[in-house]
Amino acid sequence: MTKKTIFSGMRPTGRLQLGNLLGALDNWVKLQDDYRCLFGVVDWHALTTAYEDPSQLQENTYQMVIDWLSAGLDPEKSIIFRQSDVKGHAELHLLLSMITPLSWLERVPTYKDQIQQLKEKNLGTYGFLGYPLLMAADILLYRAETVPVGEDQVPHLEITREIARRFNYLYQTDYFPEPETMLNEVKILPGIDGRKMSKSYGNTIDMSEAPDEVRKKVRQMVTDPGRIRKDDPGNPDVCTVYAFHSIFNAEELAEVERACRRGEIGCVQCKNRLADRLTAFLAPIYEKRQALEGQLDYIRDILQEGAKRASVIAEQTMDEVREIVNLKL
Predict the structure, then answer these.
(1) Which candidate in 20, 24, 263, 313 could, as Cys together with 16 as Cys, close a disulfide (CB 3.0–4.6 Å)?
(2) Quick check: is 196 catalytic?
(3) Catalytic position from the list 196, 216, 308, 328
């Protein structure tokens, strides 16, 4: 039986944090055995908001792909490539822009939200307005039947489905499938200061962090502010350390909660137990990253080979699309 096709991508922003691992990458690794997977470094997407200073784009790509491989993505099982190396993404984006109503792009929920959140940037560009259309082209170029996304990305997938329907209706075809949503089982982690984990807050733990640095950051985690002495009863519901225990130490979670509420375990001891679990969980990823560090040629070869494999699929799609829209002589 032919495997169904999955496409997903990440903007190259450098080293990935635990939120990226739990929110998407861990799921990708599991999917690659059962689907034909294409995973793209969507560097053109990165330029929609970082076009004024692309100086770190290549280094960020390199670091992110190392994290992908360290987490278990296998270039023998999956097609790993850079979006800008497969020109079909740009051509299909252009052709789809001819048929996509402007109002569809303006109503995407994240459009106005992002403009508000990134006030310091000039986002009055077509590239920013049109990035959901580029995302649709990314998916439809490989005629992906399924797309793993978080809940915040569901509106983008819905516009992809609408664009596929409009293309099929206008040209009286059933060429593009309407990709189905595969919701990631996202485990939400706070930052070490209790706020949302974000590079902009400086409160992240990188998935490839060295063990000593992991322990240092665990020691910095905020706990129940109402707990003054170590034998005071605590409230795990407001404790960042407990939130991490719930994901990385599930087998001891009930014991940790009970001991905290009864004041039988101090915050330092609780943090040490978490640090042991977290460093053990991250050890294989860290060790693999150490082995890959500095192997730029190897990473480049993976991306180039992936681009060749992706281009074969993309060119077949574009050849058929050109025929459908009567561009072939």
Answers:
(1) 20
(2) yes
(3) 196
Catalytic-residue membership of 328: no
Q: Is the pLDDT of residue 320 over 60?
A: yes
Is residue 194, in this structure, part of any structural domain at all?
no
- Of residues 4, 77, 199, 230, which has the active-site annotation? 199
pTM of the predicted model, to two decimals?
A: 0.94
102 lies in the same domain as 70: yes
CATH number (domain holding residue 37): 3.40.50.620
Tens-place pLDDT, residues 292-312 = 998 999 999 999 999 999 999
Position 152 pLDDT exceeds 90: no
Of 4, 121, 187, 230, catalytic = 121
113: containing domain: 5-189+296-324
Query: Could you tell me if residue 329 is inside a domain?
Result: no
**97 and 130 in contact (C-beta within 8 Å)?**
yes
Total domains in the fold of the chain: 2
Percent of the chain clearing pLDDT 70 (strictly above): 99
**DSSP structure string for 273-329:** HHHHHHHHHHHHHHHHHHHHTT-HHHHHHHHHHHHHHHHHHHHHHHHHHHHHTT---
